[in-house]
Amino acid sequence: MRQWIKPFELSGKYINLKPLTIGYCSDLITAVEDGNLWHLWFTSIPHPDGMAEEIERRLNLQKNYEMVPFVILDANTGLAIGMTTYCRLDPKNLRLEIGYTWYRKSYQKTPANTECKLMLLDYAFQQLGCAAVEFRTNAFNFNSRRAIERLGARLDGILRSARIMPNGVICDSYVYSILSCEWPAVKANLQYKLSYYHNN
């Protein structure tokens, strides 16, 4: 597989995205402890003891051109608040997924996710020429499903028994996407949402 996407940085008003490195491990352990996020059974968020292993896993996928992982930083303080990735990279068909995303609890339901997705989507469509960007989430991750729908993504379908969770439960995955032809309207809506935070 050829390298389609080289690591890059994006800067916003609320958050910055930088290429993930093992140097962020300690800060990300602190981030995941904000809310004890690894206890959420319906998603895969690393335990503090497994953070280094998870970072290395993502970096190895990057070496194989299968993932582009980022650390999410508070734009004002530089505090690490979570991780996200481009994954399921399909350069032949100009498709990718934005996934494996998590935020420390104190940054959930803030402008962080809206701005993060706006920047990643804009880069995917404007710089990479994507035909579609995909999102996947567990059927029982109701907050994630609502957040994806608020972005403007549309449900493509449900993959039945798509994933065996660490506790052995087999769950469905909800698959959403945004198409390139939909991006102008979705972008305008995300910018509108962020303007609300700017003005309040």
Question: What keywords describe this structure?
Answer:
Aminopeptidase, globular, alpha+beta, 5 helices
Q: What does it look like?
A:
The structure is a single chain. The mean pLDDT is 95. The chain is built from 5 helices and 8 strands. Strand 4 and strand 5 form a beta hairpin. The termini are far apart. Helix content is 32%, strand content 32%. An 8-stranded mixed sheet has the order 1-2-3-4-5-6-8-7, sandwiched between helices.
Summarize the structure.
With 200 residues, the chain is of the alpha+beta class.
Secondary structure elements and their pairing?
Blueprint: E1 10-11, E2 15-19, H1 25-33, H2 51-63, E3 67-74, E4 80-90, E5 95-103, H3 111-127, E6 132-138, H4 142-151, E7 154-164, E8 170-179, H5 183-198
Parallel strand pairs: 5-6
Antiparallel strand pairs: 1-2, 2-3, 3-4, 4-5, 6-8, 7-8
Helix pairs in contact: 3-5
Question: N- to C-terminal separation?
Answer: 46 Å
Looking at this structure, what is the CATH superfamily? Gcn5-related N-acetyltransferase (GNAT)
Helix content: 25-40%
- Please name the CATH topology: Aminopeptidase
